[in-house]
Amino acid sequence: MPQATVWRLQVVMQQSTVWKLQVVMLQATVWKLLQPICPVDSRLSAPEPEQIPLRTLQFKRGLLHEIRKGNATKEQIRLHNLVQQLPQAIIIGVRKGGTRALLEMLNLHPAVVKASQEIHFFDNDQNYARGIDWYRGKMPFSFPHQITIEKSPAYFITEEVPERIFKMNSSIKLLIIVREPTTRAVSDYTQVLEGKERKNKTYHKFEKLVIDTNTCEVNTKYKAVRTSIYTKHLERWLKYFPVEQFHIVDGDRLITDPLPELQLVERFLNLPSRISQYNLYFNATRGFYCLRFNIVFNKCLAGSKGRTHPEVDPSVVTKLQKFFHPFNQKFYQITGRTFNWP
Ligand code: A3P
Q1: Partner of 231 for a Cys bridge, out of 181, 188, 314, 330, CB 3.0 to 4.6 A?
Q2: Is the CB of 184 under 6 A from ligand 1?
């Protein structure tokens, strides 16, 4: 079929959402016609992600997008060999480390499919009691050669989670995105503060929560402080998983220069390097990198990501930094990744 006819057909079809799926199907047919006479049946021997041409994966992403919007029948799902796979990698934390940005940026990779919502399967007893099939049912449709990733930052700090994940898949890859601990604690506080303000409630100042007024020491009972003691949580995880199964992402660098961090993750996940500078552009209004999927579709993260932090008393900042210092040293030692944290 001549290319011009294909394009004309596409334009007409794009007038309704249902038609859009058919456009994708048509592209598939055209693509198939362009293949050699005897192509290898991908269902017989699913190729590794490295062997799959980018063009094919992009077509597949288009189809998945339509399916997510509910525009596919069960028959189409079956025909295209789509599956809901348990995650092969999980972003387990850390809350306010940049978990959403990391998930969305990894989703730029044609071989990655994200679970959009935080599923809270392993940290929520009620969800966990629903069983593994419930969890699988929460996963997005994907092609068998793609990998599914979910993120639920509460996993990192919840006691029962490492054992539960280990029982599901002892060789799963675990991603942890961290930020300088004091900044992360302030970010955590800012999120709670905003929630209170939205409900017209008053809230304590950060300094009051973070310092124990009786001892004048750092208040280790305050959750935002405890969450930032990364090594304490990681040590619990290491009772189940070897350190090689974790990859630490620098959340501060993901803000300022995301591509190198994403390339390290691609390598950790054994994926070919496909996320490029083209996919990431700095948006001066937002003050953050935003995502470019293709010539027409780009997006920035929601406004709830990248809040203005309140001013914090510098002496309290110093006290916190001193408090976190020995824990940070231990964290570097265990993970083999060193940061320029104070
Ligand atoms: P702040 O709101 O403190 O700036 P999480 O998704 O784990 O809740 O993390 C939120 C943090 O992601 C934000 O914290 C923000 O700094 C960081 N972030 C990293 N890259 C971002 C991006 N491209 N757009 C918006 N926020 C980003």
Answers
A1: 330
A2: no
